[in-house]
Design a protein that fits this description.
Blueprint lengths: L4 E2 L9 H9 L19 H18 L5 E6 L2 H13 L5 E6 L2 H10 L4 E7 L23 E3 L2 E2 L4 E2 L12 E4 L16 E5 L10 E6 L16 H6 L9 H17 L2 H20 L5 E2 L11 E6 L5 H10 L2 E2 L10 E4 L6 H17 L2
Parallel strand pairs: 1-13, 3-4, 3-5, 5-8, 8-9
Antiparallel strand pairs: 2-10, 6-7, 9-10, 11-12, 12-14
Bound molecules: pyridoxal-5'-phosphate.
The site of pyridoxal-5'-phosphate has 12 residues, from helix 3.
Length: 362
């Protein structure tokens, strides 16, 4: 078997132990004689599995009891629209902090359902740093404040939860850094994450919402768009993504077996540090353009000193078993995504390859 070291930004690497367990259970899940994909979500086995996955996630993240945990579909992108539908009424405005590609998209998609106030933006800085907190023009009457703690494409990350004061709920798109470190969920009104970076397969969204906010959705809309309906139906208003939910549950168990989110945080910190040190210590051969205090632990961008070497770098890295280092097409260069499922050995292999490449291509 030849597994590569996988630095894909998403859909991304899954823990090997999770894949192996899913493989073992593929044909006969839980003594049922059928795969998990081939049975009713209303069956006893599936309901027990789904409840266990939620319980494990609640334990891992320390989710308070007054929060609902939903397992939904539509990707993070659908929820860019569904969040204002559910949290804002007619005539309301919402504050958006724009710090990269995904928060810009969230703000633009929300515009169909709420008056968007861009409270802060680092676009003029090329998204190379975060908008300084003291520059945020927050509206105390906003329906909510939305931000993106980790910008997957631009490679910037907030390393602390911003204090937005008052009673305006904080909403966070945690698609690419959920479960990468402990998080004080009680600071948020709503957290959401597409699964395909740090949780499981694509097609699943984990959404955590303070229960009082479920009552906000005043406007007319079909039940399928209403978070309160999903919460009341335990995320089984219609057929959920059963496979995604199952694999997410396996990932949660794997995270618990690793020692939980504190252990993952330390591992992720060391992985990122190793790669940034290799870049910064390369004498300018490799460069990361992000202001150091805003560098992402999850998505590390870098360029080579001479763009003419990019093709050779990608070809040789792939031949060396290092997959998906090509940067996002909008930015060029390289990007290594270092999610939970990427082990320290993968980063060590990458750093060794980068040193060797620099020597050979002087
Ligand atoms: C990948 C990503 C998205 C888009 O997710 P989809 O599931 O494709 O809609 C949104 N936000 C962030 C931060 C992401 O990393």
């Amino acid at each position: 078997m030849s597994r590569v070291w996988n630095f894909s930004a998403g859909p991304a690497a899954l823990p090997l132990a999770v894949l192996e367990r899913a493989q073992r259970e593929m044909l006969d899940w839980n003594g049922s004689g059928a795969s998990v994909m081939e049975q009713s979500h209303r069956g006893k086995r599936f309901i027990a599995m789904a409840a266990q996955a939620e319980a494990d996630l609640r334990e891992l993240m320390g989710i308070p009891a007054d929060y609902a945990v939903l397992f939904l579909q539509g990707g993070a992108t659908q929820h860019f629209a569904q969040i204002p539908m559910n949290l804002a009424g007619a005539g309301d405005s919402a504050d958006y902090v724009v710090s990269g590609h995904w928060s810009a998209k969230a703000a633009s998609e929300a515009g169909s359902y709420v008056r968007v106030n861009v409270a802060a933006s680092s676009e003029a800085d090329g998204y190379l740093r975060l908008p300084p907190l003291d520059s945020w023009r927050l509206d105390p009457h906003a329906a909510y404040v939305h931000y993106t703690p980790n910008e997957t494409i631009h490679g910037v990350e907030f390393h602390a939860i911003p204090d937005v004061g008052g009673t305006v709920p904080l909403v966070a798109d945690l698609s690419s850094n959920i479960l990468s470190e402990p998080l004080d969920v009680s600071r948020f009104g709503l957290i959401y994450a597409g699964a395909q970076k740090n949780i499981g397969p694509s097609g699943l969204v984990v959404l955590i919402i303070r229960r009082d906010l479920l009552q906000r959705a005043g406007r007319p809309m079909a039940r399928i768009f209403r978070y309160a309906e999903h919460a009341a139906a335990d995320s089984m208003l219609n057929t959920p993504n059963t496979w995604g939910w199952y694999v997410a549950g396996l990932t949660f168990q794997w995270l618990k077996a690793q020692g939980g989110l504190g252990t993952m945080a330390e591992r992720n910190r060391l992985k990122a540090e190793l790669l940034y040190q290799a870049i910064d210590g390369s004498g300018g051969y490799y460069r990361n353009p992000i202001e150091p205090s805003a560098r992402s632990r999850m998505n590390v961008r870098f360029t080579l000193h001479d763009g003419a070497l990019d093709a050779a770098f990608l070809q040789e890295s792939e031949a060396a078993g290092l997959l998906a280092l090509k940067g996002h097409k909008a930015l060029g260069g390289m990007r290594a995504s270092l999610y939970n499922a990427v082990p320290p050995e993968a980063v060590q292999a990458l750093v060794a390859f980068m040193r060797d490449f620099a020597q050979r291509h002087g």
